[in-house]
Amino acid sequence: MNFGMRVRGGLFAALIMFAVPVAATLAGVLASPVAAQTVASIQVEGNRRVEIDTIRSYFKPGPGGRLDQAQIDDGLKALIETGLFQDVKISQTRGGILVTVVENPVIGRVAFEGNKKVKDEQLSAEVQSKPRGTLSRPMVQSDAQRIADIYRHAGRYDVSVNPQIIEQPNNRVDLVFEITEGQKTGVRSVEFVGNVAYSSYRLKDIIKTHESNLLSFLGGGDVYDPDRVEADRDLIRRFYLKHGFADVQVVAALTEYDPQQKGFLVTFKIEEGQQYRVAAVNLESSIPSFDANTLRSFSRVSVGSTYNAEALEKSVEEMQIEASRRGYAFAVVRPRGDRNFENHTVTITYAIDEGPRTYIERINVRGNTRTREYVIRREFDISEGDAYNRALVDRAERRLKNLDYFKSVKIATEPGSSSDRVILNVELEEKSTGDFSVSGGYSTTDGALAEVSVSERNFLGRGLFAKASVTYGQYARGYSLSFVEPYLLDYRVALGLDFYQRQQLANNYIAYGTSTLGFSPRLGFALREDLSLQLRYSIYQQKISLPNYLANCNNNPNNPLLAFNPSPAFANLAGVGPGGSITSGGQTATDASGTGLWCYSDGEASLPVRKELQSGSSLTSAVGYSLDYNTLDNNKNPTDGLLIDFKQDFAGVGGDVSYLKSAFDAKYYTPLVADIVGLIHLQGGILNKVGNKDLRMLDQFQMGPNLVRGFAPNGIGPRDINPFGTMDALGGTKYWGASAELQMPFWFLPKEVGLKGAIYADAGGLSDYQGPTSWAATGEVNVPGCIRPTTNPPTPGTCLGLQYDSGNTVRSSVGVGLIWASPFGPLRFDYAVPLTKGQFDRVQQFKFGGGTSF
């Protein structure tokens, strides 16, 4: 026992004696080189393209220029993160540190195979792997995922992307993404749960996600997009808040893939709450020198009205901006709503407080690869150094979005160099702003029509609008050039220039053609978001064309002169030469003008038309303005709101004609019950003679189905009723119209079909034709409605010139319509039956019109 213990004790001592010097040697080998290493002592092998100094630069020495183990580890990580190397190893030698690298190959080309629905250019812009760049396998996997995301946002959820790396000589590779696109994944149904105040049919108008149908290939709203569905939740919430439901919650948007239907089922769960009305509107100010009641006129919320969160937001914005204009740059307007849950009312209080004194240190604009920076900055009403005003920032963001130059716009803030400074970061993503379109349409008025146009909303990246278009149709032809500078001399005033040439050919509704060549500069002012003013000047040359057989005035004594006088005493008489007269049965017709009398013997055009023809081209020079008020909820498919347009034009600033023309047009939409929309449409106009110049027929109002449906174009109003002529519409100087219409959906059809029906009643009138005063009959047989011509005819005629119906009759009609918001553009079919009409009016019960761009 003692011997064994002595043996073990001896062995243990021997081991200690041997291990101590070995450990000391190893520690010296491992520790001493590191402690002694500098960056200059690092050796590199395996590099081909990357310089040795570049690799060494990733090792950051500590005090004294020495590298410890932690700094070597940091350098190793930094080299790996560069993505330049497949492998990096660090070893220690007696001479220092050896860094062994295996460089990533260089990408020769990046290609895509199997992609048909997404172009190569779009995919190339999204992937980070680029030709002549180094191959990074993590980056390649990220690119494959990015490509798959692009397809999923386009509704193809069974897409697969397989990257292939093809080895090439000299450490180069080709990167090929093999894509299996799969089938488009659509939305098979959109349902709403919990909606009581508004039907599912109505709510489908609000959201951007639509159900798939036979025509879905022409749009994209039926493709499942989770981002779009999430945005739809906010659209539904804002819609309810706008209509008084202050407690509304869109609890969830549930999506489920149905393998049997091969599409998604989307369900929105809504808790509407109660609808509130405004009980009172109060204003409070904690700023001693500021009277809050002076801002009351800026409130768009009134007592007794339905609570409207959108109007409340705009009120707060305008109040805060007005306070800033008055010198209270840091004033903050905070709305507060005190609800009465029993009475379902809310008391609105605008609290005006002194906000923190914060200034804008800098505005950074990022992502504008094409748009000039000043185009973006001019949408701000604030700049560097100004007081920070959240309302003005929100307005600038909204303006940038409305420009429609960018896919996305986001303005974020970050702290500045001090506590009272803030930095605004404007993050943008550009999008295409050029359009090439081919438009086609057909209407019972204009026939077939086609237009080719090229336009650019952001010309040269300077925010300019330019458009050129050519129109060619069955009865209408022409071209136009347009240019708009939205900021004239850096003011928020839009300057527009229009140059156009139009040709209207004779058709079934009008016997003559017109040709117009004109130029019109205009200035536009946005007085408010819902109120705009336009000032314009127009100068154009216009002339009439007629076939020869409508203006040859052949003398045919065998035609009765019933156009002149129904008395048989004047039948079969020869024409009257200059200064001559006809006497028959004690009645005398004298050519007091000495020019001869016009004839209608073989179907002449109306005297006013031939007078325009003989006068040649006429020049019109006019100044005018338009005042527009627009509160429509949707300009393309309105269901609520008011649209008023009032315009006046004064001709006589030079030129050959002079007049004052005024026109008024108002449309009021209101939702009724069960998705039925009511429309009241009122319109009217008056043309006044100015000075001694006569009113031309071309300047007078011409009306038809645009005033009362059920009548032909130019189908109502004063008309030449000579039975030997073309019985042309002469127009009038006064018109009025009133329409009541109910638009209703076809509930038995899917919403996405876009069909609505309409029933309506129209009434209106056009009267008071005013021809040249020199046509008054003197010394002639008193024939009602017969006006004496004074211009020279090509050949002396056989009868007096113009006998017309005054058209002073109320026209009315009732009808039904079919409105189709088709993928081919808005189409409308109307069938109307006149109830009251003039003796010589022309009826057209069916009317169709529509067209689109593609």
Automatic annotation (TrEMBL):
Annotated POTRA domain ranges read 37-104, 105-182, 358-431
Q: Which GO terms describe its biological process?
A: Gram-negative-bacterium-type cell outer membrane assembly; protein insertion into membrane
Which compartments does it reside in?
Cell outer membrane; Membrane
Q: Name one Pfam family in it.
A: Omp85
Extract the InterPro entries matched here: Bac_surfAg_D15, BamA/TamA_POTRA, D15-like, OM_assembly_BamA, POTRA
Q: Which residues form the signal peptide?
A: 1-24
Residues folding into a coiled coil are: none
Q: Which GO terms describe its cellular component?
A: cell outer membrane
- Keyword terms: Cell outer membrane, Membrane, Repeat, Signal, Transmembrane, Transmembrane beta strand
Subunit text: Part of the Bam complex.
Family classification: Belongs to the BamA family.
Task: Name the NCBIfam families on file.
Answer: OM_YaeT (TIGR03303)
Protein's job: Part of the outer membrane protein assembly complex, which is involved in assembly and insertion of beta-barrel proteins into the outer membrane.
Q: What is the official name of this protein in its record?
A: Outer membrane protein assembly factor BamA
List the taxonomic lineage: Bacteria, Pseudomonadati, Pseudomonadota, Alphaproteobacteria, Hyphomicrobiales
Encoding gene per record: bamA
